[in-house]
Amino acid sequence: MIGTLINMITVAIGSSTGLLIGERLPERIQQSVVTGLGLVTLTVGLQNALQTGNIIIPLLSIGPGVILGEMLDIDGWLNAFGGWLQSRFAGQPQAAANGDDPRARFINGFVTASLVFCIGPLTFIGSIQDGMTGDYQLLAIKSVLDGFASLAFASAMGIGVTFSIITILVLQGGLALLGTVAGEVMSAAMITEMTATGGLLLIGLSLVLLDVKQPRMANFLPALVIAPLLVALGEALGIPIYPL
């Protein structure tokens, strides 16, 4: 779990720096920073989504995945957890001068940063590799990227971004612990389609950052589990995963 710990440290340093900078930046600059992050997230999402060898797999993953996520209300649970963190560690919210709800700002920063930092190929491949072999090189690269991203996020979204280190610990740490098992059974096709499905989720998250739409992206997370399971099922049944 060395890679996960490094990632947590870089996000903590980056977000702390962002909080110091953010207090000195006008609101219009903060909004432009979020827009820029949205454009980058959109680009990364497109790159990941286009890695799929068969778009039907992400399609069949997204549909049942979001239905399951809505039934479980993952987004609601994540927002409630963010609200609890805000009340427990960030004190009682005070009304902002510009009329923003500090509690909603905290939750938005926490949820958005958690999703950005924990959806993507480096998260899954890097964590599994770290667990299997102890090689944390990919997570070290991700840590540097997340450090800069957390600086920008925190400057615009506030202290909620810092608490995304909890999500990093739980998800990446859990994947690393499961890496010795999951890494041995997951084929290259399973990882590829999971990455492509994650790309679609990042595209959806970019819509939030760009203020185009506000989808409950956390409810799409089960699709990341369904995608590799569909590939595994196809491989077990001898069904061609990728068309000739």
What's the gist of this structure?
This protein is mainly alpha-helical and 244 residues long. The chain contains 10 helices and no strands.
Secondary-structure map:
Elements: H1 2-22, H2 27-49, H3 56-72, H4 74-89, H5 102-118, H6 121-133, H7 137-157, H8 164-185, H9 188-209, H10 223-237
Helix pairs in contact: 1-7, 1-8, 2-7, 2-9, 3-9, 3-10, 4-5, 5-7, 5-8, 6-7, 6-8, 9-10
Provide structural commentary.
The protein has helices spanning 2-22, 27-49, 56-72, 74-89, 102-118, 121-133, 137-157, 164-185, 188-209, 223-237. With 244 residues, it is an all-alpha fold. It has one domain. The longest helix has 23 residues, at 27-49.
Task: Indicate the structural class.
Answer: mainly alpha
First-to-last CA distance = 39 Å
Helical content band: over 70%
- Please give the largest β-sheet: none
Mean pLDDT: 82
Strand residue percentage: under 5%
As for the number of domains, it is 1
The succession of helices and strands, N to C, reads HHHHHHHHHH
Count of helical segments? Answer: 10
Computed CA radius of gyration, to the nearest angstrom:
18 Å
